[in-house]
Structure formats: C-alpha cells, structure tokens
Specification:
Layout lengths: L1 H16 L12 E4 L3 E4 L2 E9 L8 E8 L2 E4 L3 E2 L4 E7 L4 E4 L2 E5 L10 E11 L2 E11 L3 E4 L13 H8 L12 E3 L9 H16 L8 E6 L1 H12 L3 H4 E7 L7 H8 L9 H4 L8 E2 L15 H6 L9 E6 L11 E6 L6 E5 L7 H5 L10 H4 L2 E6 L8 H13 L8 E3 L15 E3 L16
Parallel strand pairs: 12-13, 12-14, 14-15, 15-17, 16-18, 17-20
Antiparallel strand pairs: 1-3, 2-3, 3-7, 4-5, 4-6, 4-10, 7-8, 8-9, 10-11, 18-19, 19-22, 20-21
Helix pairs in contact: 2-11, 3-4
Length: 449
C-alpha cells in the first residue's frame, strides 16, 4: 500500500513538471466589463478586464453590439493586454479598441425612442470561452420647461424635480446630458415669444447634444402651454415630441389670474404671459341664480386659439394634477366669481389651489366645452393628491420619471388607452363659499400659476 501511495505522488510531481499542452489552460480565463458610459452624443465606452491570460495559447477577443434588436459582431482580435477599453461610436458605426479602429460598419440610426444597448465581449483561449455582457438604456433627451416666475432668483433650477429624475438615470450635466432645463423670462415675454425661444433652444442646444431625432417634454404650469404652442405652430414638432408630460398645466386658464389682476398690487398678473392664463371657461355670473359666463374684461384669445389645436396624434400625453377637494378649512381652488369685485363671492372646485383639476385634464368646467384635443388624447392621468401648486413639480418628478421609462407609475395613476381615454375623472362641482371678508382679498392671495 505504501508503494502505491509513493507511486501516485511521483506521478503527480512528474505531471506538474511537464509543459502545458496547447488548448488546455492551467488557469481558467475570465472577463469582466465595466458599466457602459456615455462619453459624448452617441458615443459609449466599456472597459474589459481579463484574468487568467496565457499568451502561449494565443487568446483572442471579440465584441458584439446589440442596439434596437440588431446585433453586429466584430472579428476576433489578439488580446494584447489584460485591460482593454472599447469605444462605440453610433454616428459612424465604428468600434475602437485602445484607440485603434477595429471595426466599422454602417452608422447606427439616431434614437427615436428609449433604446437598450448591449455590449458582449468574448475571450477565447485554447478550448475555453469566457463571455461578459453589459446593458444600459439610452434615453431620449428630456427638456424640463418650468412655469411662470421661473426667472425669479436668477432662474434657479428646481433641484427637487431634477434629483428624482437623476436617480432614475437621467443626467443634467456631463459629456452627454439627457436632461435640459429651459429657463425663460416669463415676466416680460408673451406666451408666443417664450414658445419661440423654447423651439430655438431645442434646435440649437438640445438636439446637437443628443444622438436622437425625438425628444420628451416635461412641463409645469405655464411651461405646458409653451410646449403646446410649439406643437401647434412649429414645423415638425408634431413628430419631434415623443412623450409630453403636463404637471398642473392650466389648459383652460386659472381664475386666480383674473382675480389677482384686479388688485392694484397684482402687477405680476398683468404681464403678457399672465394674461395668457386667464380662464377660457365660463367663470363669472352676476348672481347665484344666473348662468356662468365670461366677463367682458377677461378675453384670452391666445389660449382660446391654442385650444382649437388638438395634440398631435404621434405624441403620447400625460397629465399630473393636484386634487384637493373644496371641503374642510381649506376652500379648494377658485372655479368661479359671483357678483362684482371686491365684494364678490367665490366658488371653488377640486385642484391644487391655483389650477383646477378639470383645467389640467381639459374637462368641461361650469358648462364650458373643455378641450377635446387634450381630454381625449391622454394616455395617463396621475392624481397627486392635495399638494399645493408650487410644490407639484418636485412632488410629481419621481412618477414622471417612471412614466418616461414606461414603468408602472403607481396606484394613483389612471392608465388610459393609447387611442384615447378609457376612464375619466369628472370635475368636482363648484362649491360656493364666501371669503372671510365677504370678498377675495383674504381668501385668494395664493400666488400665480
């Protein structure tokens, strides 16, 4: 028995001293990939780290790129180092390895939708294969369009809204941003002029910084009207916009714009943009027994004309709105005026304190027609609860990010069919409640939309 053990030990020692036969690696080969990183518009980088290399086995490396369901494979190349950077350039269809061109084919088409891209790297060494794959989602550029008074305080970015989007993969900075903040002079520009500046910003800033033919728009309050104006008036915008998100957008105006403009200190309610926020729905009556109508000094031809233009068929539209009902100590959102100011009585409806829920959804208010080009086009409506108007941009942003990524938004969302609305949230009936002083002075000073 002892002789058998000694013989086995000698055989093992002899085998260890022999050279490795080609095709049988002594150490298993492995490959690991870093995360895909955007290093420019349509340019991605991934680093491959290879372990267990044996040069005498002449290892090779080969990459395959899958984008939009199409896969392109490169030719096998000798492995020259254990760490190798790949750079994929979609506009030229080229792949560079360590700065050297190793593959070239037809350019990848620009994005017209969020698109998954996958890079697989295979190392072959003798009879062994090792493969690693990494995937990321290339996002369409998304433009954030804030509301009225966004230019107060040097046009500060709403960090709360941006942070939630960045946590889900969007980026406001870096070599290839996917978020863009459009600041504009809301206190001096008209709605039309601000909309033209938005169109110029998309043309000169957004599209050159992204490898895409379409964009997403996330709009808040007045910003939603700017975007709607461009979709109605700017050539090509009916196909440029993919997803259009409206957060507390006064699609039918807001009564508070009219009321604030009546007061001597309501200068901010009398700017050109603020006048575009006057209600287009009936909101005044001489007495409680009369029908709702529009007062003679409230003409808003800009918004009335815009509301004759339905949203383009190719645009997916989403509406996020506040929904505080008119009950309890908080009266709700102004829906109507009965009598002459300042001794008029106020009527309230569900909303965010400034914009009625029905206005955000384009539904009929006080017997008005609503906005069929919006109400029957929404693919998703999201009730944000009783949050106030000025906080809704940040409150909505996490759910907005989910909508942009086509994820489930949450239990408060109402999913609608792509071809139109399958469900509707009816407007809450207006509730007549007088202000504390018999008029509006104390009960309506909440700010402007």
């Amino acid at each position: 028995m002892r002789n058998v053990v000694l013989s086995l030990a000698l055989c093992a020692a002899l085998a260890a001293s022999l050279p490795v036969t080609r095709g049988q690696a002594a150490v298993p080969v492995s490959v690991r990939l870093s995360a895909l990183q955007l290093i420019g518009p349509g340019r991605l980088r991934v680093d491959a780290t290879i372990a267990g290399l044996q040069p005498d086995l002449r290892p090779t490396i080969q990459q395959a790129v899958t984008l939009g369901g199409r896969t392109r494979e490169g030719a096998p190349l000798p492995v020259v180092a254990p760490q190798l950077p790949y750079v994929l350039d979609l506009p030229t269809g080229t792949v560079r390895l360590g700065g050297v061109l190793v593959d070239q084919s037809a350019p990848f088409p620009p994005l017209d939708e969020n698109t998954a891209v996958s890079v697989a790297v295979t190392v072959r060494q003798g009879d062994e294969l090792a493969t690693a794959r990494v995937t990321t989602l290339l996002l369409l550029p998304t433009v954030l369009v804030p509301g009225y008074l966004n230019d107060v305080g040097s046009g500060r970015i709403d960090t709360g809204a941006v942070a939630a989007l960045e946590r889900r993969g969007f980026h406001l900075t870096g070599p290839a941003p996917t978020l863009f903040w459009f600041a504009y002079r809301s206190r001096t520009l008209s709605l039309q002029d601000a909309a033209r500046q938005l169109a110029a910003y998309v043309r000169t800033v957004v599209l050159p910084a992204a490898y895409a033919t379409r964009i997403n728009l996330v709009t808040y309050s007045l910003g939603g009207l700017l975007a709607r104006w461009d979709m109605a008036a700017q050539p090509g915008w009916d196909r440029l916009v993919n997803r259009f998100v409206m957060i507390a957008v006064p699609n039918e105006g807001a009564v508070l714009s009219y009321v604030d403009g009546w007061y001597p200190l309501g200068g901010l309610a009398r700017t050109p943009a603020a006048r575009s926020l006057l209600p287009t729905f009936p909101f005044w009556r001489p007495n409680a027994g009369a029908g709702w109508t529009l007062p003679r000094d409230s003409a808003n031809t800009v918004l009335a004309d815009l509301n004759t233009h339905p949203l383009p068929a190719a645009v997916r539209a989403y509406a996020f709105y506040g929904n505080h009902p008119p009950r309890g100590p908080a009266p709700g959102t102004l829906a109507g005026v009965t009598g002459a100011l300042p001794q008029a009585a106020a009527s309230y409806g569900a909303g965010d304190g400034i914009v009625l829920m029905a206005s955000a959804l384009g539904l009929p208010i006080n017997g008005g027609p609503g906005v069929p080009g919006i109400a029957d086009h929404l693919v998703l409506t999201v009730d944000l609860g009783s949050a106030g108007h000025q906080s809704l941009f940040a409150v909505a942003s996490a759910r907005v990010a989910d909508a942009l990524l086509d994820r489930r938004v949450g239990d408060t969302a109402n999913t609608l069919g792509e071809s139109g609305a399958e469900t509707r949230v009816p407007p809450a009936p207006a509730t007549d409640r007088d202000g504390a002083d018999g008029g509006f002075l104390q009960s309506t000073q909440q700010g402007n939309p």
